[in-house]
Amino acid sequence: MSTSTIHDIGYRHYDGRRNGRAYVLRSLYVHNLRAAYGLGRPARAKVMPFLLGAIMLLPASGSVAVFSFTKEPQALMRYSSYASLLQVIIAIFLATQAPVLASRELRFHVVPLYFSRPVGHLDFVLAKVAAMTTALFALMAVPVTVLYAGGLVTKVPDSSGQLWKYLGAVVGCALFALVLAAIGMVVAAFTPRRGFGVAAVIAVYMISSTFVLIIQGIAEARTNFTLSGWMGLFAPFNLVDIVQVRLLGAEKSSVQVPPGHTAGAVALALCTVIVLGSIAVLYRRFRKAGLS
User: Fold this and answer.
1) Angle at 176 between CA 164 and CA 102, to 5 degrees
2) Which residues neighbour 288 within 8 Å (Cβ) at sequence distance 6 or greater?
3) Does residue 278 lie within any of the structural domains?
4) Distance between CA 284 and CA 235 in Å, rounded?
5) What is the Cα–Cα distance from 169 to 148, expressed in whole angstroms?
6) Does the keyword Transmembrane helix apply (predicted)?
7) Three-class secondary structure of residue 124 per DSSP
8) Are the C-beta atoms of 132 and 36 separated by less than 8 Å?
9) Between helices 121-153 and 43-70, what is the axis angle to 10°?
10) Does a structural domain hold residue 14?
11) Which one-letter DSSP state was computed for residue 154?
12) Which one-letter DSSP state was computed for residue 25?
């Protein structure tokens, strides 16, 4: 007969470094940011984000190339208008990548596994929203930086004035990224199937933009330009454009914007409400999923 032996090796306590909450938050943020661009995932996951990133860069590169030959200041695209002009590409990026960050864990029912460790519900949500915001900011800010750097290299006039316009546009890109990420993450979190999530985010963007354009067209036909401007509050890109125009001194990219600094303050307050409200909704969504 074979005999068995039990070896008592004793319980060994963990004596290593305990990194704490900041390390957990940073790890979740980096993991989600990499996922937004398909890094660490199969090759097919990288195609869409990098293709859209390349498309975003093309107009900036072409604009710089045209300016280098013509030396016409009008050849350079306006920094503050770049996101609005390419909003369709940005919306597609948001629609395809928001479900990757917001609904994968929900779809595969692994959210409770995250919270079985000392991961706070709010930390989990903040890391995801911050990662999506950073991914969108990079998508918009890199082409704007190419425009600015290309203008400096090719001797654009009034370089000091260009610096302030560039910095204002970067602030605008950050605000665009915050608002769009907040909206896209909420929509995607309530549509666990990725295909439905993509369609839902696109639908929210198209319905809001189309609705605002229709009302603005009717208002302008009746010479009610004030109503036309205030309607911009109901479309994400128009909303941020109001902040850029009224508080950052940019030229308008929307059909119409409401007058005065008060309009900029109202638009900025609405942006804040959207971001904070979205974080609260996502917190409740993931907390409920973590308990199921």
Assistant:
1) 145
2) none
3) yes
4) 25
5) 10
6) yes
7) helix
8) yes
9) 30
10) no
11) T
12) H
